[in-house]
Structure to design on (212 residues):
C-alpha cells in the first residue's frame, strides 16, 4: 500500500535560490524567459556568472540599447579579470545588455577576432566607437578599467596603458611607431611615479604628451 503521508523535504537553499532567480529575471526582463532560465541555471551549474543585467544608478535600464562607458564597465566586470574570452560567451554578455549586434560585429571585424578574443583589445576597439580621438578613447578605457574605490582621476598600470596605446595606434594606422615609442618613453621617464600607475590627467592635461 503506497504511503501518502510521506513528508517532502525542501532543500534549505531552494527558497533563496528561487528568490535570487526571480529578482534576476525581473531585473533582466528577458524576451524568452524559458530560454533565459535555461542559460541562467546552466551558468550557475558551471560556476559562472549568470546572464543577469546589472543594476547601476548611473545607467537606467531604458538606456541599455546604447553603448556607454558605464555599460562597458559592467561588461568588464562580467569578464572578471580574464585576458581571453570565448566569442560565444562575450556575444551572450553583449546580448544580455541589449547592445547593438551590428556594433559587436563591427568590433569583431576590425579586430579580426576569431573564437578566442583578447579582452583588452576588444574593449579598446569598443571604446574607440565612443572616443573621437585616441586620447579620448584611452581616457574612456582608463575610466572603465579603474578601480571604483580610487578617488581622483582614473588611473591604470602604465604597462596596460602602453599595451592599449600601441594597439590602438596600430589599428589606426596613421600614427608612426616612432611617435608612439617617443610618447611612451617620455611618459615612463618623466611622468610615471614609483607606483607604476598613469592617471587620465597625465596624458590629457600635459601639453608635452601628444598621443596622435
Amino acid at each position: 500500500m503506497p504511503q501518502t503521508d510521506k513528508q517532502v523535504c525542501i532543500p534549505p537553499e531552494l527558497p533563496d535560490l528561487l528568490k535570487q532567480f526571480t529578482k534576476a529575471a525581473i531585473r533582466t526582463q528577458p524576451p524568452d524567459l524559458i530560454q533565459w532560465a535555461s542559460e541562467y541555471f546552466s551558468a550557475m551549474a558551471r560556476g559562472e556568472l549568470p546572464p543577469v543585467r546589472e543594476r547601476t544608478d548611473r545607467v537606467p535600464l531604458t538606456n541599455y540599447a546604447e553603448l556607454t562607458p558605464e555599460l562597458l564597465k559592467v561588461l568588464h566586470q562580467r569578464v572578471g579579470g580574464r585576458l581571453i574570452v570565448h566569442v560565444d560567451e562575450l556575444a551572450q554578455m553583449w546580448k544580455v545588455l541589449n547592445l547593438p549586434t551590428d556594433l559587436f560585429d563591427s568590433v569583431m571585424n576590425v579586430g579580426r577576432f576569431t573564437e578566442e578574443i583578447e579582452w583588452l583589445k576588444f574593449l579598446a576597439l569598443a571604446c574607440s566607437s565612443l572616443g573621437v580621438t585616441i586620447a579620448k578613447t584611452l581616457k574612456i578605457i582608463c575610466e572603465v578599467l579603474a578601480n571604483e574605490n580610487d578617488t581622483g582621476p582614473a588611473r591604470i598600470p602604465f604597462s596596460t596603458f602602453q599595451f592599449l596605446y600601441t594597439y590602438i595606434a596600430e589599428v589606426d594606422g596613421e600614427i608612426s611607431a616612432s611617435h608612439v615609442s617617443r610618447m611612451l618613453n617620455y611618459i615612463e621617464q618623466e611622468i610615471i611615479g614609483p607606483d607604476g600607475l598613469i592617471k587620465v590627467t597625465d596624458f590629457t592635461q600635459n601639453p608635452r604628451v601628444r598621443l596622435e
About this structure: Confidence is low (pLDDT under 50) at residues 55-64. The chain is about 55% helix and 5% strand.
